[in-house]
Amino acid sequence: MTGTTTSARNPSGGRSTPSRQRNRQPGNVGSPLATSITPTFREINFVDIAFGVLAPGDYQSQGRYFHFYQFEGRENQLIQIRLTGSADQRRSNNLSLDPYLLLLDPNNQVLLKRGTGSGVDNRGVRDAFIFVRLPAKGTYKIAVTSQNPSQKGRYSIALRNDRASYTLDQSNELTPEGLTLKQNRSPYNVSKFQGKKNQLVSIRVDSVFEQFSPYIVLLNSKGQIVASDSDKDGKYSALIDRARLPEDDTYYIVVISANAQERGTYRLTLF
Fold first, then answer.
1. Mean of the per-residue pLDDT values for the chain?
2. How many domains does the chain contain in total?
3. Rounded-to-integer distance, Cα 191 and Cα 4, Å
4. pLDDT more than 90, % of the chain
């Protein structure tokens, strides 16, 4: 199966793409290194899990405490980072943390950012998860902080190689200069791939800088909906999980914002 991208037409035949409103918080955490103070960088590898406690006395930026980790990355390397907070609610020493992470490239530019969204397990623990293809060889830095300013608390962080095999892996952007819906001028993009009958496919879209809440629809060549975002993976991610294709066909993936006219950069993967 090969993947290509098309923007020549709306495969839904002019029908309205389904949309869903989600509560949205702006991703307003910028690069924490824009100060005259040089923080301490801890080495992190692809085997161990690192633990820490954000607390007064740590490096501060934008009203938040920060810890920093660094690792060596390769061009086109696929990695995963999971930052897990704490649900510690003790009155005497509350170390509950709603974590937030930023990945900085070798030039200290923010490559992507991710908060916890709706990622809460049955213990009330929140985690922030990203997976990314590294653009170049060099030293990358992970900035660990809190979703809310001045918050302190415990966390754990794990760095892993992403061993998934992606049929489609694209970075793109929703812009008002591209395709837009007639009824509300919301931008959307379309990608296509060749699928086989009974093939199981999963499709994921992540808003790289938390600029919008993505929504995805999978259509067949007749413009009929095969599957749509199952909303399992947080406010800034969309996921269609193991959809079964009904026949050999050309299939279209429509990416749009769940909230009208929002736009931004995203990563689309098909696996």
1. 85
2. 2
3. 7
4. 68
